[in-house]
Amino acid sequence: MTAAGFQSDPIAWYQHQVDATLPGLLDELLADVPSELAEPIRYAVLAPGKRIRPLLLMAAFKATGGEAENATRMACSVELVHAYSLVHDDLPCMDDDVLRRGRPTLHVVYGVPAAVLAGAAMMPLAVQAVGLASGPLGLSAEQSDHLVARLTAAAGGQGMVGGQLLDLRAEGRAVSPDELEQIHEGKTARLIAASAAMGAVAAGGSRKHVDRLERFGMRLGLAFQAIDDILDLRGTTDELGKVSGRDSVLQKATYPGVHGLPEAERLSRELVRAAEVELDGLPQPHDLRLIADWILARRH
Amino acid sequence: MTAAGFQSDPIAWYQHQVDATLPGLLDELLADVPSELAEPIRYAVLAPGKRIRPLLLMAAFKATGGEAENATRMACSVELVHAYSLVHDDLPCMDDDVLRRGRPTLHVVYGVPAAVLAGAAMMPLAVQAVGLASGPLGLSAEQSDHLVARLTAAAGGQGMVGGQLLDLRAEGRAVSPDELEQIHEGKTARLIAASAAMGAVAAGGSRKHVDRLERFGMRLGLAFQAIDDILDLRGTTDELGKVSGRDSVLQKATYPGVHGLPEAERLSRELVRAAEVELDGLPQPHDLRLIADWILARRH
């Protein structure tokens, strides 16, 4: 399908770019990986998804003056990290989920050891994907280092993995609004913030633009998690592609749980608005606004 | 203790350097990591170990013309990867070990979820450790990228994680000598080879020297695993710091299992000799020879 065919729906165009690029990129990255491991990795990464993180990277690349399409391979690096986090989150020793993206979870299909290892292998793959994408974008080694530093900080103990542990430790007990924000910032918002910031870094954006896009992503990421919490409460398993109501079963710390449903809704709107303020003054913020509005609209 | 105090035992000096550097490096790397995650990471990394991989990196740095001590922080990056692999290998869904480095395994002390997450967080930490160590060594961004690429390839699906899955898949069935070598190359030898090669890269060694040190490390790594297999068969739990005889219980693919004990012994000697041949012509190979001989002597 040509770009023209997506003119009325830029989000679908971004998703198509990512979905069309992932298989070939995985072929390259997995060339020397035993098939026993490559197969579950493909299963996890190629499952249908909204691709929100790579979309944000591409749209931030465009917002800072780049041609979105050129950032597609770089954008796949953040999807690899996200897909790995889903594999580990779903493990029996974690959230013990059996359905993800409308399919049985990885450990259900390939067993728990393969799921632990496939997830673990996807982090170095994501770093390698940054390396692979840097050359064709004409990035300097310094820029490539900077991208790897942002990706590893967002994915590691300072970000996603740390947030995931805080999330598990908060199960079954009351948490304060501050604690909730710390958990959601770590487990969700930091990778989303890094995605937006990485787009700006890859486009050679100024320090000011990179910082603004990181703040945009952090607020949008918190809103995204608040809306995810709302949907888990209200959605059906069919709509979500994962079993709904799990937060309540696991007694997770959630926005509706801490603030109540109406306040959680209000907060998500407020966070998206605060995120969009950061876009003022960027060369091409249009697609980022579209993505932010789309994320907010998901709550209905 | 001064370097002079270790003159009669360079290996103890290297180990002391690594052990003295790891706590401060972890303080830096874990500054923004929640304490719930930082604590199990420290438990895993600071457990007493032989530090073979960082020793090889430092000795390879020296062999190619550098001052070994200056490579200590860079060397800690490969120890972080190794320590993470032990945490995941010991999980109940993997080898289900309860004792490691003379202490209860991480999941026994902190629970399985914390063990999965602490292990996962140590891979990005290792990449960050390379970044932290590159500046003071005066390395260019290209050299730093090169080091990260070697580390991630050795740690990921192409190396350690892939080998670990092949190892699990081989349990309980007969494997050929070629298959055994593929498993051991992945799960053990590649990270050891990368450690030696990274030392040469960090010292600004020529392509020829880097390649020779990688081959040295690959052969030594296979010998190391063969000797580990022999020790598991013969050693006592007290000597090993882990429960002995587990390979046999788990019906693992091992050198003594595939080749018989006398041939496994002979192969380990032959591999160490073939490794040492690669050192000819390096500026300062003395310490690498010491380490290779020390690894070989462990089999008794």
Structural write-up:
The structure is a homodimer of 300-residue chains. Chain A has 300 residues and is mostly helical. Chain A has a single domain, classed as Farnesyl Diphosphate Synthase. Chain A has 15 helices and 2 strands. Chain A has a two-stranded antiparallel ribbon with strand order 1-2. In chain A, a hairpin with a 2-residue loop joins β1 and β2. Chain A is globular and about 50 Å long. The relative contact order of chain A is 0.12. At the A-B interface, α2, α6, α7 and α8 of A face α2, α6, α7 and α8 of B.
CATH topology value of chain A: Farnesyl Diphosphate Synthase
**What is the subunit arrangement here?**
homodimer
Task: Characterize the main sheet of chain A.
Answer: 2 strands, antiparallel
Net shape of chain A? globular
Proportion in β-strands of chain A: under 5%
Q: Structural class of the secondary elements of chain A?
A: mainly alpha
Order of helix and strand elements from N to C terminus of chain A: HHHHEEHHHHHHHHHHH
Q: Low-confidence runs of chain A (pLDDT<50, min 5 residues)?
A: none
* Largest protein-protein interface: A-B, 47 and 47 residues
List the helices and strands and how they pair.
2 copies of one chain form a homodimer.
Chain A: H1 10-29, H2 35-46, H3 52-63, H4 72-89, E1 99-100, E2 103-104, H5 106-110, H6 112-134, H7 141-155, H8 160-169, H9 177-202, H10 207-234, H11 237-240, H12 246-249, H13 255-259, H14 261-277, H15 286-297
Helix pairs in contact in A: 1-3, 1-4, 2-6, 3-4, 3-9, 3-15, 4-6, 4-9, 6-7, 7-9, 8-9, 9-10, 10-14, 14-15
